[in-house]
Amino acid sequence: MLRKYNLISASRRFLSFKTYPTPNQNALKFVSPERPISPLENKTFEFGSSLQAVHSPLALKIFKLPGVKSVMIGHDFITVNKQDHVNWAHLRPEVTELMDKFLTSDKEPVITKELLESEKDSLAASEKDSEVVAMIKELIETRIRPAIQDDGGDIEYKAFDEETGTVFLKLQGACKSCSLSEDTLKGGIEAMLMHYIEEVREVVQILDPEEEIANKEFDRLEQKLKEKKESSPPPPPPSL
After folding, report:
1. pLDDT tens, 169-185?
2. Which residues form the Scaffold protein Nfu/NifU N-terminal domain (predicted)?
3. Residues 101 and 174 in one domain
4. Residues in CB range of 167: below 8 A, 6 or more apart
């Protein structure tokens, strides 16, 4: 499914954006084929709130739209996560219009210089990396990350435990809150890393504190419903 917005104006040149669905129904990927959004080709910047977006004037403006949950900015795309109750039919054109006005005005940077200079790509090679860590990063960068970004997300390397063979990663954008994120992590990422790198035995996802709380609340609710169902008396037999 692909929608293209051709915007025409006599007063200024409008940009054309394409929107792509993601595996997460609450996330849309807005692609800018005419001009880059962020100056860094592979690095993405994710913001979970307006407080986190202080170094992205564009993200701050997007957060002012009702129903926006998170924003991730890539080189030529932006992924917007919305609240469950918000309809894309209303939010999509608002995001597109806002992006167009911001990118054509060139009055403010998309990402401030301070953030661009301070943020390092977790998959970038480092002299401190062991041979195994270097292999893990290279495999993620070349084989896994492109597919994740195609779906409006990204992946961040956190650590590798050599004793247990555990790789700690963080999914971002559309992928982190997707119902299929566990399948992506275990069936896709873990399987590939274990296939090519024998030292890897497991992949574990690192969650933000608020995500951990939400997951615990969901598990608690599920357990409560299960206990209620088990304690309920069986229905009476049908009368003849």
Report:
1. 988 887 766 656 677 78
2. 17-106
3. no
4. 136, 157, 159, 160, 190, 193, 200, 202, 203, 204
Which residue's structure tokens are 């960068």? Answer: 141
Mean pLDDT of 45-74: 94
Whether 230 is covered by a domain: the verdict is no
Here the CATH number for the domain that contains residue 158 is 3.30.300.130
Sign of CA dihedral 48, 50, 55, 60: positive
Please state which of the ranges 6-10, 90-94, 157-161 shows the lowest mean pLDDT. Answer: 6-10
CA distance 71 to 172: 10
Q: Dihedral of the CA atoms 163, 176, 99, 45 (nearest 10)?
A: -20
Do 97 and 169 belong together in one domain?
no
The 3-state DSSP class for residue 28 equals strand
| Whether residue 133 is found in the same domain as residue 193 | yes
- Whether residue 187 has pLDDT greater than 80: no
Q: What is residue 153's three-state secondary structure?
A: strand
Range of the domain at 200: 129-209
Amino acid at 5: Y
pTM check: above 0.85: no
